[in-house]
Amino acid sequence: MRVLWIVNTIFPAPSEKLGIIKPVLGGWMYGLAEQVAKQAGIKLGIVTTHSSSNFIKMQISGIDYFLIPCKDKTKYDVNLEPFWVKICEDFMPDIIHIHGTEYAHGLSCIRKFPNLRYIVSIQGLVGIYSRYYFAGISSGEIFTNITFRDLIKRDTIFQAKQKFANRGNLENEYLINSKHAIGRTGWDFAHVKSVNPNINYHFCNESLRDGFYTAEKWKLESCEPYTIFLSQAGYPIKGLHKVIEAASLLTKDYPKLKIRIGGVNIISNAKIIDRIKRTGYGKYIGKLIEKNKLEKNVLFLGSLSEEQMILEYQNSNVFICPSSIENSPNSLGEAQLIGVPTIASYSGGTPDMIESGKTGLLYRFEEIEMLAENIRKIFSDSKLVSQISENSIISASLRHDREINLEKTISIYNKIANS
Question: pTM (2 decimals)?
Answer without folding.
Answer: 0.93
